[in-house]
Specification:
alpha+beta, five-stranded antiparallel β-sheet, five-stranded mixed β-sheet, 51% helix, 15% strand, elongated
């Protein structure tokens, strides 16, 4: 696979480095103050020695020569003796450096310094002196460099970012349940290869989910056909058969039918699909109806949520069946209350309760508590009821938990977001 993305980034950075070098060279050329060579300094020193009178000349002659040089050079000139004493000056005297600089210019005073052969020190500073001009030029060069880097890197960075943003959007769509989410493949670089890999993975996931759905549909049909024949045979043999045997067979058939239904529902809830038929549900009415059907007590205020009414009714029914199964001697209690933007549903019983270490495991599929794996009289269930409760709650944006009830028993809480007004 050609690493075109790598080459794009590499060539872009290489171009930026080349441009940086070119601009740095221009900035150095504009700001570098290269001093004259030794021969040039000796030549200038010879000229100044000839222009200035001898060291033993009268002061007036030295002042006249300094004044003439100041006019000709249009600047300030100061002459210091070998002992450091000021001999003459045109304009305000320039401060002599403590040590003779190795270069041509004394940086602190922005003056040119030259040591003559006779020991005298000459300082010259032009009247039109712009010490900050070079620095400003260097700052302008740096600003141009930063602008060039920004302009050069922006198109590539933005192009890559947009493609990654589109890829992220489709990944989130797949995670939200859109199994048909695909990414448009652009180019032939690594991001395009990633897009192709995502499309293949999404297609594979969609194929597997559809195959699972088809398999479960076919299995349910094949299982329910013999169940129907078993029911018919039991009814035909009712007159001559054993009534106790018939009741037990009917009991087993109902359990098997319920198991098939719960497996199908659990399979549908575990897919990536979002709820299909969303509607505004009066949770108070659903709770009251299911409580009356199960012979449970109900109390609570109004609460509306948005979801699937059939699934929410199944959630409450499973909790009530669980409560009846573990506390057959006392009615369950259903409570509904509003808490901010959520509806809190509680189903409590007076059974033996659930140990703290098992309060999460009971929501696992096919999990049955130790000591309750075998049928105990009228106890039924295959370990999918509470798992479905949590799946339905999470499908509607909430969750289900279990805690101890005051006075003994278990309390199952379902927290669901209420529908907006």
């Amino acid at each position: 696979m050609k690493r075109r993305l790598f080459l794009q980034v590499y060539l872009t950075m290489l171009g930026i480095v080349v441009l940086f070098g070119a601009l740095a060279a221009v900035g150095w050329w504009l700001t570098h103050d290269e001093g004259p060579q030794a021969e040039l300094r000796r030549s200038i020193g010879t000229l100044l020695t000839e222009a200035l009178p001898a060291t033993d000349a009268p002061q007036a002659e030295l002042d006249a020569a300094i004044a003439r040089l100041g006019r000709d050079l249009d600047g300030r000139i100061s002459v210091y003796g070998p002992e450091g004493a000021l001999l003459a000056s045109e304009g305000e005297p320039l401060e002599a450096p403590e040590e003779l600089p190795a270069g041509w210019r004394a940086r602190r005073s922005h003056a040119f310094v030259l040591s003559l052969a006779d020991g005298r020190l000459v300082l010259y500073r032009p009247e039109i002196d712009r010490p900050h001009t070079k620095a400003i030029g260097f700052l302008i060069a740096l600003a141009l460099l930063a602008l060039a880097v920004a302009i050069g890197a922006w198109p590539l960075a933005r192009r890559l970012a947009r493609r990654l943003e589109r890829l992220q959007t489709r990944v989130e769509a797949l995670g939200a349940g859109d199994l048909g989410a695909r990414v448009e493949v652009e180019g032939k670089d690594e991001i395009a290869a990633l897009a192709r890999s995502f499309n293949r993975a999404a297609e594979r996931i969609q194929t597997l989910v559809e195959a699972q759905r088809d398999t479960l549909a076919a299995a349910s049909h094949e299982l329910r056909s013999p169940l129907a024949r078993i029911r018919m045979a039991v009814e035909l043999l009712a007159e001559n058969g054993d009534p106790a045997l018939r009741a037990r067979v009917e009991h087993d058939v109902e359990d098997l039918d319920e198991l098939i239904e719960e497996i199908l529902l659990a399979s549908r809830l575990s897919t990536l699909e979002r709820p299909q038929h969303l509607e505004r549900i009066d949770l108070q009415a659903v709770c009251a109806e299911e409580a009356a059907r199960a012979g449970a007590d109900f109390k609570g205020g109004p609460g509306e949520i948005q979801g699937e009414g059939r699934l929410l009714a199944r959630l409450i029914r499973n909790l009530l069946e669980n409560a009846t199964r573990h506390a057959p001697g006392s009615p369950a209690l259903v409570e509904l209350e509003a808490q901010g933007g959520h509806a809190l549903l509680r189903v409590s019983d007076r059974g033996p309760g659930v140990p703290e270490e098992e309060r999460e495991r009971i929501f696992e599929p096919f999990y049955r508590r130790e000591g309750r794996r075998e049928d105990e009289g009228n106890e039924r269930g295959v370990g999918l009821g509470l798992s479905l409760v949590r799946q339905i709650a999470r499908r509607h944006g909430g969750d289900a938990t279990c805690r101890a009830r005051e006075g003994g028993g278990a309390c199952f809480e379902v927290n669901l977001p209420t529908a907006p007004p």
